[in-house]
Amino acid sequence: MTVRCYIALGGNVGDVEEKFRAALAGLAAIPAIDVFEMSPVFRTQPVGQWAGGDFLNAATRLDTTLEPLALLDVLQQLERATGPRKGPRWGPRPLDLDLILYGDRTIDDPRLQVPHPASWYRRFVLDPLAAIAGDVRHPAKGRTITELRERLLRRPMRLSLAGGSRTNRERLIRILSGPGIEICPWNAAQSSGEVPELLAWLGLSDEDPGPRFDDLPLLPRLDVSSVPDQVAFLRDVLHSALG
User: I need a surface site. Which of 53, 92, 95, 165 has the fewest CB within 10 A?
Assistant: First the structure.
């Protein structure tokens, strides 16, 4: 059976656009894959302290009869063909090829999660993807790619914090607040009657019982309860969502 898939391309080392062209040619050379249009190329700011300089990002559509893990193997082989990465795991890279959507399937495998778990709030994914797949519905969030992108254009962007201790929520609000961002506890967001662009669940707390993750609205919720450094993680989330 043929499945329509969407791949995100990114990189910030060397001639990235040439690497994009080579990757698409490599995909098209495989009989089980038909490559269609690629989005315009977007220049984006790096996310994370080790990421290096500005990135180029794009997206492409393809049809394939490969199963998800077989397609992942192909993508990883093409990444390796551009040369080894140097430095930290999230450092500069010549080429990233991420499987964002595999039809309307949801996949949770130790090697692969689809839809890509961060794709719904990352502008460097949504901007190029919206150019070629704006009407495609995100299987987990239930909104089209265009709708997901447009949610992130509001300023100030709203981040609500649910769960965890009151002390931790106040600490995160104090540290993460900045231009273009509005942060508040989830109960305050509920009182306003508006759904925030992002809703971070900090976990359960004996001292301050709060909602469980599954009780929160599906669209904006993000589970950060097991993240070792919630400040750094949420900083990167906000950075990638602001675009």
Answer: 53
